[in-house]
Design brief:
The complex is a heterodimer. By secondary structure, chain A is mostly helical. Chain A is 77% helix and 0% strand. Chain B is mainly α. Classes of the chains: A mainly alpha, B mainly alpha. The interface between A and B is medium-sized, with 26 and 23 residues.
């Protein structure tokens, strides 16, 4: 069944990606056709991969106890939020809606903020459930430290930008997500150390997926510092995010393998 | 399909059959989400594996001790495992018939002794 699901997801992903490449270009678009379509294609691919990964995690729920199901569901929720957040970016950018009230009020960042929080909350619950507690599973400590990191990062010197507040908020979101994803990966690796062999591969892939997402965020943060005006294209970040999506699918698939024993 | 296969391996679940009591205890231990909880039981397994020479099988008394360890781990998995639910039937489904009979005989003897 899982094999069929993977094949069906691959077909849907390919069809959605092809569909994205034929989207009509709005009259307001000022760039080239490829500048409009390529981000759409990559974002669609990334969103489909994250949704597929979320569904794979959810397929495994029946084998687990209530608290573990909640932990999985929270991580899956994070994946769906990442997918929706990515798709909205493509839509807002492509249809010239970056100046809309939703974007300007910071709502655009909400899915990503919550997604990283979900990854952390889900892996933290998992860690606590199997008795792998540490400073990193103490939310009352981790969240303030992450917020402090965001504030300190905003104080870093940088080249002139049109709007300081937008610059700080967008980088703050990236740093928030990066710190929470790395913390979640660390918790998963600690759980992996003490868990039985049956689950080790699944946890390895989960840690790899979180680190893949973190690598993408590191590049985005560096890009934000070096090239704050986004004069170069963001394709590197998008491609890394797509690879991270593939790693999430692999992690979800590994979890489906833990169902049977 | 080859890209999917190389990334995901075979999507068919392999049928495992456990033939020896040593394999069985290791298999049951691999299902625990917190190895520290079952570590005291595993000390006995370590003692036995350290004493058995390569190519030799554990003695009858060692086999009995390993069955006892397996039953402790099985009970832990069924009653205390925090992450997932296990059933006795499910856990024993992959045990080779001979070994399963040995375990059941051990349980009967244990009950008779009270």
């Amino acid at each position: 069944m899982v094999g069929k699901f993977i094949v069906a997801s691959a077909v849907v992903t390919i069809l959605a990606t092809i569909g994205a490449s034929f989207l009509p270009i709005p009259a307001s678009w000022r760039g080239t056709s490829s500048e409009f379509h390529i981000p759409f294609i990559i974002d669609t691919l990334m969103a489909c991969l994250h949704i597929c990964a979320a569904l794979l995690f959810l397929m495994t729920l029946g084998a687990y106890k209530q608290k573990m199901r909640i932990a999985y569901a929270v991580v899956s929720g994070g994946l769906i939020l990442t997918a929706l957040g990515t798709l909205q970016l493509a839509v807002l950018d492509g249809f010239d809606l970056m100046d809309s009230p939703w974007s300007m009020s910071g709502g655009v960042a909400l899915p990503f903020l919550l997604a990283s929080l979900a990854y952390y909350a889900g892996t933290r619950s998992y860690g606590k459930l199997v008795g792998s507690t540490s400073l990193f599973t103490r939310a009352a400590l981790v969240i303030p430290v992450v917020l402090l990191g965001v504030v300190l990062f905003s104080l870093l010197p940088h080249v002139a930008v049109p709007s300081e507040i937008i610059y700080d908020v967008s980088n703050g979101i990236l740093v928030w997500s990066l710190l929470l994803d790395v913390t979640a990966a660390y918790i998963v690796l600690r759980v992996r150390q003490r868990i039985g062999l049956h689950y080790k591969q699944a946890l390895t892939w989960l840690a790899v997926a979180l680190l893949g997402s973190s690598l993408c965020l590191v590049v985005a943060v560096v890009q934000g510092v070096v090239d704050p005006n986004r004069e170069s294209t963001d394709y590197v970040v998008n491609i890394l995010a797509t690879i991270a999506g593939l790693l999430w699918v692999r992690a979800g698939y590994s979890f489906t393998r833990t169902r049977t024993y | 399909m080859s890209l999917l296969s190389s990334l995901f391996g075979s999507t068919k679940q392999q049928e495992v059959q456990v033939n020896t009591i040593l394999e069985l205890t290791n298999y049951a231990a691999s299902l625990a989400s917190n190895l520290e909880s079952i570590d005291p039981f595993l000390d006995e397994v370590r003692r036995i594996t350290a004493s058995v020479k390569p190519g030799e099988s554990p003695s009858v008394s060692d086999n009995q001790a390993l069955i006892s360890v397996y039953l402790h781990i099985e009970e832990y998995l069924i009653t205390k495992e925090p992450v997932r639910s296990f059933s006795k039937e499910g856990l024993r489904a992959h045990i080779a018939p001979d070994l399963r009979r040995q375990i059941e005989n051990y349980e009967v003897n244990l009950k008779e002794k009270g």
